Amino acid sequence: MFPVQEVEERLREIRKGNSLAREDFLEDCKPFIFKVACRFCGRILDWGRDDELAVALIAFNEAIDRFREDAGVPFPAYARMVINSRLADYRRKEGRNAAARGGTLPLHPDVPDDTELNRAWEVYWEEAADREREEEIKEYEGLLKKYGVSFEDLVKCSPRHRDTRETLIRAALALVENGELFAGLLSKKKLPLAELAKSTGISRKILERGRKYIIATALLIYRREDFLYLSSYLNLPAPGKKEV
C-alpha cells in the first residue's frame, strides 16, 4: 500500500466522484488485494481463473465507499477486514467449509433498515479491529524478540527529538531499500553498522545509539502490510524497492 497521507488524499478524491481516480486506485492496490485474498485462501490465486480475486476486488471497492477516516482504523486494515468477510461469505455460499479467520458479516443480512445494517457493520469492524490490533502487537513483539529487542527497549531508546527520529527512520528506510544489507540483518539478526554508516552518511555513533530503534523500524517498514495498524499509526514511509 501507500503512505497514510497519500491513501487518505486519494480516497477523498474518489469521494468527490472522480471515477478515474477510483479506477487508478483499484489498479494500484491490486497487489495488496491479491496478497490478502491469497492469504485468506491459503494458496496462490490467478486473476484470470479464480473467482475469489473478483470477490476480493469488489470487496475492496466496497471498502472505499464504506470507510470513515474518523473510525480509528487505517484504510488498509479496514479493507482487509471487508475482503476477508466477503470471501468467507463467498465460501459459505459455495458450500466450502474452510475455516474463516475472525467473524463475518453476511452480504445481505435480514435487517429492517439501513440504520440497523450500518450499526451492525460498525460493531463488526470495531470488534474485528480490536482483535486484529491485539494479534498484530503480539506478532510484532515475537518478531522483535528474535533480534534481541523488546517493547521495553523501544520505550527507553525511542528518540525524543524530531530530528533524531527522522534521522533514524531515514537509516531504517535506507536499510530496507538496500537488499544486501537488509538480507544481512535478516540472517545475522544484527545491524550492519559500518556498511549502513557508509551508505547513509550517518555517523556510526548515532546508528549505534539508535540500533534497536532502527531494527524495529526497518522490520516494520519491510513488513508494513503485515503490520497495518502499527505502520499506519507511526506513519512510516514506504520503501522504494525491496530486493531481499
Automatic annotation (TrEMBL):
By sequence similarity, the record places it as follows:
Belongs to the sigma-70 factor family. SigI subfamily.
The entry's protein name is: RNA polymerase sigma factor SigI
Note the NCBIfam families from the entry.
PRK08311.2-3
What are the BP-aspect GO terms?
DNA-templated transcription initiation
Naturally occurring in which organism (per UniProt): Pelotomaculum thermopropionicum (strain DSM 13744 / JCM 10971 / SI)
Per UniProt, the short sequence motif Polymerase core binding occupies residue numbers: 51-64
- Report quaternary structure and partners: Interacts with RsgI.
Q: What does this protein do?
A: Sigma factors are initiation factors that promote the attachment of RNA polymerase to specific initiation sites and are then released.
Q: Cross-referenced Pfam families, in alphabetical order?
A: Sigma70_r2 (PF04542)
Which part of the chain engages DNA, per the record? 193-212
The Gene Ontology CC terms held by the record are: cytoplasm; DNA-directed RNA polymerase complex
Q: How is its activity regulated?
A: Negatively regulated by the anti-sigma-I factor RsgI.
InterPro entries in the cross-refs: RNA_pol_sigma-I (IPR014244), RNA_pol_sigma70_r2 (IPR007627), RNA_pol_sigma_r2 (IPR013325)
Location comes to: Cytoplasm
RNA polymerase sigma-70 region domain ranges (all copies): 27-96
Under Gene Ontology molecular function, one entry of this record is:
sigma factor activity
Query: In which domain of life is the source organism classified?
Result: Bacteria
Recite the UniProt keywords alphabetically. Answer: Cytoplasm, DNA-binding, DNA-directed RNA polymerase, Sigma factor, Stress response, Transcription, Transcription regulation
